[in-house]
Design a protein that fits this description.
There is one protein chain. This protein has 2 domains: about 70 residues; about 150 residues, no CATH class. It has 7 helices and 6 strands, in the order ββαββαααβαααβ. The strands form 2 sheets. It has a 4-stranded antiparallel beta sheet with strand order 2-1-3-4. A two-stranded antiparallel sheet has the order 5-6. The two termini are about 35 Å apart.
């Protein structure tokens, strides 16, 4: 079994058990250094996983905040370099905020459609009707451009930053699980968005899938089905530059 090893607040990478034992016996690692592997909910001291008949050296002083320290409160830590999972309310707020932004962009289209209907029914001159209809077409065209621009902007951010518009505004992001890397366009767009959307469009099965997908957020790791499909998780913080 391979373990992620952290020493003095920095990760050293993955090591097999034999390598960890060898370094413990040679003094390169101490029982106070930290490890994590699949199945563990948080980082643990090496002394809790490996028994070495040597005295552990005193841990060096660490200034600042140790990202691998045990949480002082009931905060769920994601695997990776001290990543913290986003709470369910923030994820819901990000989705609501995105929907609100796109709804605002669609308002000119709604008003344009209403005006077009009024133009057809209005008892006025032909010139007046033509101007009325032209303005409604302008509103609809403006709305289409706004929605298209927002959609392109969102796809670019998902591919390059792991963030949708709402997630960026609320300071959260999508990362791979368990490494915490940027997911890229395939995972962030295709596997998290397009594939679940296609499944959700299937009659009868689709709505059931969509409901179960959302309910999976109540798992301990807060990963929906689309997260499991893409191998991703949602954590706090902006992506590194």
């Amino acid at each position: 079994m391979n373990y992620h090893i952290a020493k003095n607040g920095a990760q050293l990478g993955q090591m097999p058990e034999e390598e960890v034992m060898r370094r413990l016996q040679s003094g390169e690692l101490s029982t106070n250094d930290l490890c994590w592997t699949d199945g563990m909910t948080d980082w643990q001291p090496l002394g809790a996983k490996f028994r070495v008949p040597i005295a552990a050296p005193a841990p060096p002083a660490i200034t600042g905040i140790n990202p691998y320290a045990a949480p002082a409160s009931n905060v769920l830590r994601a695997p990776g370099a001290g990543l913290e999972l986003v709470n369910r309310g923030t994820r819901l707020a990000a989705a609501f905020l995105e929907g609100l932004i796109f709804m605002v962009a669609a308002l000119p289209m709604i008003f344009g459609g209403m005006m077009a209907g009024l133009s057809d029914n209005a008892a006025s001159s032909a010139d007046g009707n033509m101007a009325f209809s032209g303005f409604s077409v302008l509103l609809i065209g403006l709305s289409v451009l706004l929605i298209l621009g927002l959609l392109i902007f969102q796809l670019v951010m998902l591919a390059t930053r792991g963030q949708s518009i709402g997630k960026r505004l609320l300071g959260i992001r999508i990362v791979t699980c368990p490494n915490g890397d940027l997911p890229g366009g395939v995972k962030a767009i295709l596997l998290r968005g397009l594939v679940p959307g296609i499944i959700g469009a299937i009659p009868i099965l689709g709505p059931l899938f969509s409901i179960v997908n959302i309910c999976f957020i109540f798992r301990e790791d807060r990963r929906c089905i689309h997260d499991l499909m893409a191998g991703t998780q949602v954590v706090k913080g902006q992506p590194p530059h």
